[in-house]
Amino acid sequence: MNFKRLVFAVLLSLALTFTLAGCQGGGKEVVHIYNWGEYIDESIFKEFEAQTGIKVVYQTYESNEVLYAKLKGGGANYDVIFPSDYMASRMISEGMLEKLNFDNMPNISKIDETYLNQAYDPDNEYTVPYMWGTVGIIYNPNMIEDEITSWGALFDEKYSGQILMFDNSRDAMGIALLYLGYSINTTDKAQLDEAYELLKSQSPLLQAYVMDQIFEKLEGGEAAIGPYYAGDYIVMLENNPDLLFCLPEEGSNVFIDCMCIPKGAKNKENAEAFINFMCETDIAIRNSIATGYSTPSKEAYEALPEEIKNNPIIYPGKDVLERCETFTNLPQDILDYYDTLWINLKS
To answer: Best exposed site among 46, 127, 254, 291 by fewest CB in 10 Å?
Structure first.
């Protein structure tokens, strides 16, 4: 299915149905956005600027850990960030996020209540859901003859030199823990040691640790197999329709990424205007289609074409989601242990 063509068809229909949000932000000058790569329809920025007079300054990062380090190090000038659930929880616990003024964000009413008041923000004070999705294995059947059903494929010697792996500790350790039959949120150091040893044995088989680089490597046939997010798989199909996706039998991670405002943001009202704009139905639809990810907006979901709503990779069924687990924030001693293991693995 060609999702880019689908965007244009959907937008033509939406133009007759939905109206963009009214002007907000009081004509102030700028909002600094820091987001994952390949994770927004950048054409919406001009519309936001035209509506509000607020200029969007946009930068990207590759992982939650990069985002955390950038903000924790100080000196970062961002107004809106997009951490995943567990990282939002950590930032809340460490006083790194501003409480939101929902009077400035009436479009929160468009979010399905299923995605509100989550464990990472139980009182819904700091976060607004942006997208959700799952993690799986993406592989090229022209390079791998076997049907992939297990995380074990990422540790198989016969794919040596063709395997890619997440370049962040939480996702990589999570995969190893799942394959070993453990929770991705375990605090048992013996289990974490087992996962580390598995990743250590995998390291010589890898072509590379990657994040956004996975696009060019899998799309271009430079590598055969790697783990990544389901939404990015949908985008990759545009350039390589042969690629396949597997949510492994051992289970996986299901996540919610959030829109938040860092503590001390210089343009908080502008940030709230931007978050409100992002929750507009047509903007949510455009972002969902452009990125391949699942929208938490109930109106946006209902307006999507049936072939998207019925795509089990974008909107997996209950039976699949029951095999998945959400990352939670971990105690500080375990976070420190993760850092030690990851440094040892990469050194």
So the answer is: 46
